From TrEMBL:
It comes from Dolosicoccus paucivorans. The chain crosses the membrane at residues 58-76, 82-98, 241-259, 271-294. Residues 4-78 form the Cation-transporting P-type ATPase N-terminal domain. It is found in: Membrane. PANTHER family: CALCIUM-TRANSPORTING ATPASE. InterPro entries: ATPase_P-typ_cation-transptr_N, ATPase_P-typ_P_site, ATPase_P-typ_TM_dom_sf, ATPase_P-typ_transduc_dom_A_sf, ATPase_P-type_domA, HAD_sf, P_typ_ATPase. Keywords: ATP-binding, Membrane, Nucleotide-binding, Transmembrane, Transmembrane helix. GO terms for cellular component: membrane. Pfam families: Cation_ATPase_N, E1-E2_ATPase. This is Cation-transporting P-type ATPase N-terminal domain-containing protein.
Length: 344
């Protein structure tokens, strides 16, 4: 339903979502809505296959240059040189692959450790379910300490206060109430609505779910976070260097080949000589050296409880002077506690 549900009468919301506030949804209807709206999760559930993840490591310009050099070495009859280059490329790609694969698995394991649950009405009976099974139209029963699993409207409150710092940055709890709001009210002032990621500080209440998963306000933020991250300066530098070497190799092959032709030398010998020079200038150990050093950096970060998903971001971390983070509600609790007091 429309995200601007805060200014709709509750009766209209009940009608649009086809639900009785005293009974909630039936199990059968909840299953149908799960099939229609999907699970109440922020990710789309698609995982990058290990094969695709490994193949991605081979798209680096320097790797492509080395693979081309190995093929040319086979063409020149130098099988040992070709094998060495293949082994170097394989080691480099494997190191980067396992780092990204293990980091992804670690993130999945961390997520699976926390299976939050919420109480709601199913067939008129209070039932505890996992938050990912919440669907639009569900009637939640809220108590102190609960985290709102989706967006919705409050249909009853009893001294209910909610911390919305994750959305607004405001660390003080907001008092919630039942009623309609008129006009274009900013999110921080919507006293009749609750949003995914907020948590109940005190009181009790009931809320009807109007949006779940990626259709929530928090889901909109998650969509932006899941977009392809920009390439790091380290990666850009390696790519520029790889493209430069490829350009030099092609120009060298053509130049030496045509110079030898003007000197009336054998065409095949001229071509072989030009290709040999091109193979000789390729930095065969550069990918392996880069991957090994970045892997060591990732291992040291892991010892500090930091998961590195992509190796090339380590260069950015190394050049970081100040880290700015939205810490309220994540790193900190958004509150002040007295540790000690002294009489003056």
């Amino acid at each position: 339903m429309d995200k601007e549900f805060f200014n709709l009468p509750l009766e209209d919301i009940y009608q649009q979502l086809n639900v009785d506030a005293q009974v909630g949804l039936t199990k059968e209807e909840a299953q149908k809505r799960t099939a229609t709206y999907g699970k109440n999760v922020l990710s789309d559930g698609k995982k990058e296959s290990p094969f695709k993840l490994f193949f991605k490591q081979l798209t680096d310009p320097i790797i492509i240059l080395l693979l081309s050099a190995s093929v040319l070495s086979i063409f020149l009859g130098d099988l040992m040189d070709a094998l060495i280059i293949f082994v170097i490329v394989f080691i480099s790609a494997t190191l980067a692959f396992f780092q990204e694969y293990n980091a992804s698995k670690a993130m999945e394991e961390l997520s699976s450790l926390v299976k939050a649950k919420i109480t709601l009405l199913r067939d008129g009976t209070p039932t505890e379910i996992e938050v990912e099974d919440v669907v639009p139209g569900d009637i939640l029963i809220l108590n102190s300490g609960d985290i709102l699993p989706a967006d919705g409207r409050f249909i009853s409150t009893n001294d209910l206060t909610v911390n919305e710092a994750v959305l607004t940055g405001e660390s003080f709890p907001v008092e919630k109430e039942v009623g309609n709001l008129e006009g274009d009210v900013p999110l921080a002032k919507r006293s009749n609505s609750g949003y995914m990621g907020s948590n109940v500080v005190s009181g009790t209440g009931k809320m009807i779910i109007t949006a779940t998963g990626r259709n929530t306000y928090f889901g909109g933020v998650a969509k932006d976070l899941q977009k392809q991250a920009p390439m790091t300066e380290f990666k850009k530098g390696l790519n520029r260097f790889g493209r430069l070497l490829m350009t030099i190799s092609v120009v060298m092959i053509l130049l030496i080949f045509f110079l030898n032709l003007t000197m009336h030398k054998n065409i095949f010998d001229s071509l072989m000589f030009a290709i040999s020079l091109a193979v000789g200038i390729t930095p065969q150990l550069l990918p392996a050296i880069s991957s090994v050093n970045l892997s060591l950096g990732a291992k040291r970060m892991a010892q500090k409880d930091v998961i590195i998903r992509q190796l090339d971001v380590i260069d950015n971390i190394g050049g970081m002077d100040v880290l700015c983070s939205d810490k309220t509600g994540t790193i900190t609790e958004g509150g002040v506690k007295i540790d000690a007091a002294f009489d003056l």
